[in-house]
């Protein structure tokens, strides 16, 4: 645990890199990319519930992690950015395999007579295979953008602290 630094009277700690427009834009872009990813994952999970082969709990856990990271990044937690980039790389790989059919069958090939339709979490008919395929393919650019924005934001030094006189900070 790092020791608490005593500030001289009349001084405050300021974070100059957080005040920059580019830093605020990157923070917003990372949070937006995380929210878009969660929406896409939940749509795929709810609309293709019966065809996810036991991965529903993992999808919900992944969404919870992304929501928690979005909250922390919105509060300038720079340390979460490389972690979420790692998660985004894993999800990118999964989306590439599922969306392109690299593992054998893509969502788009499930329109044939041999495949049963997907059912939603609520018991009714789920999304069509084409919609599930498009949603899966939309995860690919969402994860690429998330990786890019998170790594660009990580390099902005949100954690840099400077001591300023109270008069100079106002």
State Rg. 21 Å
Task: Please indicate the count of domains.
Answer: 1
Relative strand content: under 5%
Strand runs, count: 2
Question: What is the helix content?
Answer: 55-70%
Mean pLDDT: 82
Low-confidence stretches: none
Brief write-up:
By secondary structure, the chain is mainly alpha-helical.
What attributes characterize this protein structure?
170 residues, mainly alpha, 2 strands, elongated
Account of the protein in words:
This protein is mainly alpha-helical. It has one domain. Helices cover 57% and strands 5% of the residues. It has helices at 21-47, 56-74, 80-100, 129-154, 166-169; strands spanning 11-14, 162-165. A two-stranded antiparallel sheet has the order 1-2. The longest helix is centred in the first third of the chain and has 27 residues, at 21-47.
Which SSEs are present, and which pair or pack?
Layout: E1 11-14, H1 21-47, H2 56-74, H3 80-100, H4 129-154, E2 162-165, H5 166-169
Helix pairs in contact: 1-2, 1-4, 2-3, 3-4
